[in-house]
Amino acid sequence: MKFRIIAAGLAVIATTNSAYAYLDPGAGSFALQMIAAGLLAGGASLKLYWFRIKDFFVTRRRKASHDN
Question: How sure is the predictor about 43, in pLDDT bands with cuts at 50, 70 and 90?
Answer without folding.
Answer: very high
